[in-house]
Task: structure prediction
Amino acid sequence: MKLLIQKLSDNAVIPARATSGSAGYDLSACLDAPLTVKAGETVKVPTGISAAVEGEESCVLLIYARSSTATKKGLAPANCVGVVDSDYRGQIFVALHNHSREDRVIEPGERIAQLVITPVFLPEVEIRDSLPETERGAGGFGSTN
Result:
């Protein structure tokens, strides 16, 4: 399996895993100058790359927060997890939300999120009048306490 990366900008940083045990590839901000994200604001940060998984249409690229960026700066993906569909070939952007009470600055080339490749199951949809019974049933929020 290969992760194919296309650089769309000269200053784009190729995603890389920080350690051999890292699940995600770090995504970096492709900026010409520092970007200030005001407290409570959401911005779309370009990465300067597009990506595809060679020969794997049953995979999705998921954009997750970097734990250090989220905990130290309060910056995390606005949509919690970004989804890059297998047929998308445009630039990858990271919608970052500033959850802190202070303005935060993103520097050019700064690691802002992580890209995780995950298989996707695409079952046939079948309409039924009922679903198989389970011990839990329809019990929802807090029903297993």
In short: The mean pLDDT is 93. The helical segments are 67-73. Residues 16 and 22 are 9 Å apart (CA to CA).
